[in-house]
Amino acid sequence: MLSGPAQAADLKISFQELTRLLQSIASGTRIYLNNVPGGLFASQSFIQVSNTQQYPVPIPGKTFNILGSTYGYYVSDVASSGVRLIPINGALRLVVSFESNGPEAMALCVSGGCALADVLPDIQWDNAVANIDFVPIRLNGSISLEVKTVTIGGVPRAVCKGTADFIERQACSLGLPFANRAINQLKADLPRLLRDAANQPGIQQQLAEGLKRYLTLGPAGEVAINNISIDPNTLTVQFRFNTAGN
Length: 246
Description:
This protein has a single domain (15-216), classed as Bactericidal permeability-increasing protein, domain 1. The chain contains three helices and 13 strands. It has helices at 15-26, 166-198, 201-212, and strands at residues 2-14, 30-33, 46-48, 54-56, 62-66, 69-75, 78-88, 91-98, 105-111, 122-139, 142-159, 223-230, 234-245. The strands form three sheets. Strands 4-3-2-7-8-10-11 form a seven-stranded antiparallel sheet. The N and C termini lie close together (5 Å). The mean pLDDT is 86.
């Protein structure tokens, strides 16, 4: 069996169709956010695509000092509750919603007497959502996805644990600026942390393997992807294959 000359062609895939092809992979995505220190079996933050390996999302604690003690705001047990994949202009958007049972971050003692640890405000993040925008890329002779942009939505706010007496009111007043600072830092840090985690080579390879079966051309010959290009609605795959001869 001899190989004939390489033949070139283009394959056009709409982002609507690409969304449909990737739904089964996207549906297995999980994000878990937790950086509370201590606990032998405590789970730390991770992102997981299609029910396989978990990749860490290292969220630093946000520490501050009040009255000689050091406290820190830590994200506590925030799990994704739903995912959906939608086409947008020249990309695919993975919309990840998060549960909102109890506070999403709380102040804990780091060092010192920490007399105010039990009365500093919590942070609640209502309707928390991460919008993760993927664009197709060429990877190892196939196609994968790369995260270009992550935006965080929802309404984070500092919430006092109680205002029944003078000490609780004063503690909340002292803690509110630090809680609000922690909110601003989280909103600034999370997009970068999630983007870096989702762009791990293992995840990109996994996405490439998931897409590969949809890019076969049956008996047409061995396919090698030369390049890809993107317009607002369509992915164009430039490839070549060898025709068989006797």
